[in-house]
Design goal:
It contains 15 helices and 20 strands. By secondary structure, it is α+β, with helices and mostly antiparallel strands. The protein folds into 4 domains: 42-54 and 191-312, 2-Layer Sandwich (Beta-Lactamase), CATH 3.30.450; 57-188, PAS domain (Beta-Lactamase), CATH 3.30.450.20; 321-384, no CATH class; 400-605, Nucleotide cyclase, GGDEF domain (Alpha-Beta Plaits). The radius of gyration is 39 Å and the shape is elongated.
Length: 606
């Protein structure tokens, strides 16, 4: 027998060691750096600003990608003729209204005709029709996009229509090998600059560069740049009014330090003041990477910043290693517990068929848990074969140990095999038991699929009811659907039996509804959840009348007037007439189930 260990000591030793190594490493590195702690965490403040700007930038640009994909996916190519542009204008105006990040969008066809939608300074959506000339913006855009097969980002461009510099998402529209037109979506640099302004504060300024020397977004550009953007859409670093950022490429600075993922930290000295810059490339939005950045001031941070970054890198590496080991160990430890919890939840809803035994473990407590759970599972699976699952689910949900008794309106069904003795003639006991089990499984499946509760099996007969323990609507219809399903299943089964040279099975079914007493009937030590009342007797008598109505039918379903009247709009019945039943004064009206009513085609189409 392999040795087993206590989970308490394994977790204590493992995590204690990991925590000790992690904390000791951080302390040692801080001690090696003369005990200096960068309490102001200037770098961390700037990093948060950069990460926030990157997330906001991606959200805005991704919105253009998603909206462009949505427009193309829902665009009817016939609309590109622009013969009736009103629907198209409504469609693209709605698309613009649904994405407030987007400044404008345009759809053009292969004849250099376009419809553009944009926001005016007040935020109102306006549209215009564009015709491409020999050297127009639309023609130049058309010639550039038609050379591409896939959606892509174009370079920043000044839009004369919108009056701003824009980032533009371009989606060519192809039908097989034919270029049909394109969709382009614009996000203004003014909007991106407003985002930069929202993320900036008195201590930190954020910005976005296009490449290394052109500014895509900066607080000073939120209302538009005071320059001619038609010549060069984006200003250079030295053209920005910010006195610090213009020195980013030219001022004296210490060598850049790459932290992770391309993020770089540098210190720039401007007029005897040090500024910490953090920049990070953001790729996927054009041929050149976008660079999000932020800077903040701090005196005398040159050596301390480098030392702190080294400390963070080493300590982070140790912590990451510790977390990986802890994750692996935690999964190994908690997996059996999680599996037990999942299986227990299934057991609580009596889904025994979806629960498998737990595997053994070398950890003592987990092994004991698996052994106990598996023993419980075997007992519950056995228990579940003898008790109606709907009843037990209700008791569990209501935290009860007994259902009690009550009067309810229920629908009762009786089924019985005709000529059971002759069918089983020549079978040994084992074959008889197998035949009964197969037949009862067939009938029970049809009943349970329609929400019925199996009350009992009486040899080859089945008694079931609808409306308890759970109250259901259309109990009569559910019972008749179950009866129809039994008919179909019996017919299919008989086809197989005939091919096997076995005698056919014939079945009689009786259905009646009315008030009954339902609940726990029996002694305190042995209870049955069942129904009692005259309705049960009538259901059984209706089943027995089947041999008088049609003794040769493979499956016959007889119902009372109460059932028939409640379903006359849904089910077709044949009237049998009044019949005298054993043990009851007077006669009852009997009807035979024929078929389900066909839906009203005209009503369905309307």
């Amino acid at each position: 027998m392999k040795a087993k260990f206590s989970i308490f000591w394994v977790v204590l030793a493992s995590f204690g060691t990991l925590i000790f190594v992690s904390v000791a490493s951080v302390i040692a590195m801080n001690a090696a750096n003369s005990g200096q702690v960068f309490n102001k965490l200037l770098g961390q403040v700037v990093v948060r600003s950069v990460e926030g700007l990157e997330l906001a930038l991606r959200n805005h640009l991704d919105a253009a990608e998603h909206q462009a994909g949505f427009i193309v996916a829902n665009l009817d190519l016939d609309d590109l003729s622009f013969e009736d542009p009103e629907n198209l204008i409504t469609f693209i105006s709605g698309s613009l209204a649904a994405a407030p990040q987007i400044t404008g969008l345009m759809i053009a066809n292969d004849r250099r005709q376009g419809i553009g939608v944009g926001r005016d300074p007040a935020g109102r959506v306006q549209h215009t029709r564009v015709q491409g000339g020999v050297d127009s913006d639309l023609t130049n855009l058309f010639n550039a996009i038609r050379t591409q097969k896939e959606p892509h980002w174009g370079p920043p461009t000044y839009s004369e229509t919108l009056g701003v510099t824009i980032m533009n998402r371009r989606v060519p529209i192809w039908e097989n090998d034919r270029f049909r037109g394109f969709v382009t979506i614009a996000i203004s640099t003014n909007e991106l600059s407003r985002l930069a302004g929202e993320l900036s504060d008195a201590d930190t300024s954020v910005f976005v560069l296009y490449g290394r020397n052109r500014v895509l977004a900066h607080t000073s550009m939120a209302e538009g740049a005071a320059r001619d953007a038609t010549i060069e859409p984006l200003p250079a670093l030295y053209e920005i009014s910010d006195p610090i950022i213009k020195h980013l490429r030219s001022a004296d600075r210490i060598p850049e330090i790459e932290v992770s993922g391309g993020t770089r930290v540098s210190v720039v000295k401007v007029e005897e003041t040090n500024y910490a810059f953090i920049t990070k490339p953001v790729r996927g939005y054009g041929e050149r990477p976008l660079i999000v950045g932020a800077y903040s001031t701090e005196s005398d941070i040159d050596e301390l910043l480098v030392s702190m970054i080294r400390t963070i890198v080493v300590a982070t590496g140790v912590l990451i290693l510790a977390m990986i080991i802890a994750l692996i160990l935690s999964r190994r430890l908690t997996s059996p517990i999680s599996q037990t919890s999942e299986f227990a939840a299934r057991i609580s809803t009596l889904e025994f068929d979806n629960v498998s035994p737990l595997p053994r473990s070398r950890l003592k407590e987990i092994d004991d848990l698996a052994t106990s759970f598996n023993a419980m599972l075997v007992g519950l699976q056995s228990f579940g074969r003898y008790v109606p699952r709907l009843l037990v689910k209700r008791l569990i949900r209501e935290h009860q140990v007994a259902a009690g008794t009550e009067e309810r309106e229920l629908t009762v069904m009786f089924t019985d095999v005709v000529g059971f003795t002759s069918i089983c003639e020549g079978m040994d006991p084992t074959e008889v038991a197998a035949f009964i089990s197969e037949h009862l499984t067939l009938v029970s499946n049809c009943i349970e699929r329609e929400g019925g509760t199996i009350d009992k099996y009486i040899g080859d007969a089945v008694m079931a009811f609808w409306g308890a323990p759970e109250t259901i609507e259309n109990a009569n219809l559910r019972a008749i659907r179950a009866a129809g399903a039994i008919q179909t299943a019996i017919n299919a089964d008989n086809s197989k039996r005939k091919r096997a040279n076995l005698p056919s099975v014939r079945i009689r079914i009786g259905v009646h509804s009315g008030p009954l007493i339902v609940g726990d009937i029996g002694s305190p030590d042995r209870l049955n959840y069942t129904v009692i009342g005259d309705i049960v007797n009538i259901s059984q008598r209706l089943e027995g009348l089947g041999k008088e109505v049609d003794a040769e039918a493979e499956a016959i379903v007889l119902v009372s007037r109460d059932v028939r009247d409640s379903l006359k709009d849904d089910v077709v019945f044949d009237e049998i007439g009044k019949k005298k039943v054993k043990g009851r004064e007077g006669e009852i009206e009997v009807f035979r189930f024929s078929q389900f009513a066909q839906p009203d085609t005209a009503s369905a189409e309307s």
